[in-house]
Amino acid sequence: MKLNDKSFRPLFASIVRWAFDGEGTNSNITEVERLTSFFKFFHKLQEQLRSIITSYYSYILDNTVALLQKYSEGKLTDVNLRRLIFSSLSSSFKYDQDEYWQVGARFDSVSEVLTSQLTNVEDGIGKYLVKAISSLVQDTCSSEEHNKQMNELMLQHMRADCGAREKYWAIRTLKTIYQKVRESWLSLLPQLVPIVAELLEDDNEDVEMEVRTGLVKVLEGVMGEPLDRYLD
């Protein structure tokens, strides 16, 4: 059966209602099971149709943001579903050709809720969160306003009062961002340098080493000069 966009959208909307609202569901299927099935299906669809269905995120954006808020607050704990949501968002950012995620309201909601995941992301799926955030930045880095906003959000998770794992994954994310966008973020270094100086003296060995051997090396590669002169 071949479907065009006009005929498929109503079908997709009904699948969304089944997944998020339980419309027409069998009572034996839990909400997490429905959502897991949906995001598996949607991610496969994204990888096949790419930019054709980027705008389909409008059907689930508010609900997806609400789900991620539950994760950051510790109210939802299913790791597999969380990973699938990260992967779905990464694909949407990657294949966005119509500046869908450049729209202020969408960028604001998704950037805030994604960076909030740094507070308690499981180590086993941290790399999927890193990919999602860095892919969003890569997709929207043509906007100076979005760059500044994301940089401020990232720095909030690298302060002295943040947890060790939170700082670790924030550092990993920022390192990946600079690897992807390179010179596009160099103007934001003045806000980062004082925090890097603090993190190089962090009590947690993993945090200190990730900064020293990871983030600093990437920054120096982008700058083309040692970072030491700016740390003094």
For this entry, what is the oligomeric state of its chains? single chain
Would you tell me the structural class of the helices and strands?
mainly alpha
First-last Cα distance:
66 Å
Along the chain, the helix and strand elements come as HHHHHHHHHHH
Helix content: 55-70%
Runs in which pLDDT lies below 50 for 5 or more consecutive residues are none
Rg, nearest Å: 19 Å
State the major sheet.
none
Q: How many β-strand runs?
A: 0
- Which whole number gives the mean pLDDT? 95
The portion of residues forming beta strands comes to: under 5%
Shape: globular
Number of helices: 11
Question: TL;DR?
Answer:
This protein is 67% helix and 0% strand. It has 232 residues and is mainly alpha-helical.
